Amino acid sequence: MALQHHTTLIARKTVGPVYDWRNGALAKVVRAKLLEAALRPTRQRVSLASLLFVAGDRHVTVEHLYNEARALGMPLSRATVYNTLHQFVATGILREIALYGSKAWYDTRTGSHCHYYDEDKSLLFDMPTDVAKKLELTAPEGAEIVGVDVIVRLRSVAPEID
Q1: What would the pLDDT profile of 40-64 be if each residue is shown by its tens digit?
Q2: E strands within the chain?
Q3: What is the predicted pLDDT for the residue at 46?
């Protein structure tokens, strides 16, 4: 009786989306955006910029973006995320919003605009209307107003008990 040798092929199943940081359609758009900002489109920059700019205006912290990148299997450290966000701020493609103490948020919408900050949910989001236009501000002599940024802090109210 001859022994039969069976070779079992085990197919590797890819978990989550596969991200092509070099040749994918999104990567090409992001690479062009980085080159326009005079940033070399490294794997880390392209990966993080893709997360930031794929879905319109976003507000993230280093921790939010790091967790999102890790969930997608991107091999990035927290320090890389932090440094990359600061590079994006320095070139003007991202805006940093310092929020009470050491908490910093990063906004993909770089122009002057107003925000709500929900303290209960630790969530920063744009106001639907720009209240800054209604403030009637005047600059001191010899200066001009280049932007107005308003952050309104919110907290849930307890329902009244009768």
Answers
A1: 999 999 999 999 988 788 999 999 9
A2: 59-60, 95-99, 103-107, 115-118, 123-126, 151-154
A3: 93
For residue 44, the one-letter residue type is Q
Give the separation between CA 93 and CA 108, rounded to whole angstroms.
7
* Domains of the chain with bracketed CATH: 22-110 (1.10.10.10), 112-162 (no CATH)
pTM of the predicted protein model? 0.78
Q: Where does 1-158 have alpha helices with state H? A: 25-36, 43-53, 62-71, 78-91
**Which residues have C-beta within 8 Å of that of residue 57, sequence separation ≥ 6?**
107, 108, 109, 126
Q: What is the side-by-side order of every strand in the sheet holding 59-60?
A: 59-60, 103-107, 95-99
Strands 123-126 and 151-154: unpaired
Range of lowest pLDDT (3-17, 35-49, 60-74, 83-97):
3-17
b/e per residue 11-25 (b: at least 16 CB within 10 A)? eeeeeeeebebeeee
